[in-house]
């Protein structure tokens, strides 16, 4: 949660597309972790 909020602040402060890509990448990683937990 902390890393996601930090990425949100980075996206707001810098407004660069790069931080937005990292935000989407982190969301994908979270979905993969939840998917693996769901399997186990």
Automatic annotation (TrEMBL):
Keywords: Membrane, Transmembrane, Transmembrane helix. The chain crosses the membrane at residues 6-28. This is Uncharacterized protein.
